[in-house]
Amino acid sequence: MEKTLKKVDIIFEIDDKQSPLSILEKTIKRSPDEIILDLIDSGLKGRGGAGFPTGLKWKFARNEDSETKYIICNADEGEPGTFKDREIIDRVPDKILTGMAICGYVVGAKEGFIYLRGEYNFLLKNLQKRVDDYNLGMKKLNFDFTIAIKSGSGAYVCGEESALFESMEGKRGEPRNKPPYPTVAGYNSKPTVINNVETLVYTSMICRMGPEQFKALGTSDSRGSKVFSVSGDTPISGIYELELGMPLNDFVNEFGDGDTKAVQ
To answer: Which CATH class is domain 20-210?
Structure first.
């Protein structure tokens, strides 16, 4: 059955009964393998563009034999007209931190970093406070994981994961040859899981609500929902979370100016 445009509220939903830190506390009582199976079952794919299954990425990193591993949140949002990550960081940063912490638990990492786009430094003060509070909360849970923020260098190419690693290591931000892939040799040549802001929030929400509710949305090829940045020639610009699988015509009719002649 063909989908129609449907607005969803997973990313920005505020649950007064269950805080992001309590989601972490509940999730780490389960085994890493159980969490991976839930992510695979949910059908969640990376929301950064490549569309790689998130559960498999975490599984590959978990299977790497290394005492040191890293979790990185790619918050270097540089595509023209895109501002969804900025909104997520501003409104629900704790959900990002929860996704990072759960990932650290699953793959066996002790450190996580948020690579924040240089142009988003106006978000830094509030984000740093939330990170400090969250680190303190994890310490109270006796959970061995810490998160830090690294400010981006401002270069567009640093949004590419391997160029981002180079930038974090103090080098010129240029893409590396692959393989090896980040789950084998990423930041500091150690196994690394790098997910974007939106993906990490979805992982924390799937751990809260279970895979069934998430995969009930979307299509067999594209499960769940996605956040869209709407700007330009539209009377209702903004951030919208929509179920995947909708016809493009529905999107244009909903957000266009009413005089659309073609879509390229």
So the answer is: alpha beta
| Cβ atoms < 10 Å from Cβ of 249 | 12
CB 72 within 8 A of CB 193: yes
Strands (E), the chain: 70-75, 111-116, 146-151, 192-196, 225-230, 238-243
Contact 185, 33 (CB under 8 A): no
- Report d(CA 88, CA 200) in Å as an integer: 11
Tokens of 48: 């950064």
Per-residue confidence (pLDDT) for residue 17, from 0 to 100: 73
Q: What tokens were used for 263?
A: 């879509």
Residue 158 CA to residue 166 CA, distance in Å, equals: 8
pTM for this structure? 0.94
Contact 59/106 with Cβ under 8 angstroms? no
- What three-state secondary structure class fits 96? helix
- Do residues 125 and 132 make contact, with C-beta atoms less than 8 angstroms apart? no
Residues 6+ apart with CB under 8 A from 132: none
Structure tokens that stand for 153 in this block: 């260098």
Please tell me the predicted confidence (pLDDT) of residue 104. Answer: 99
Phi, psi of 147 (to 5 degrees): -120, 140
Question: Residue 9 and residue 176: Cα distance in Å, rounded?
Answer: 37
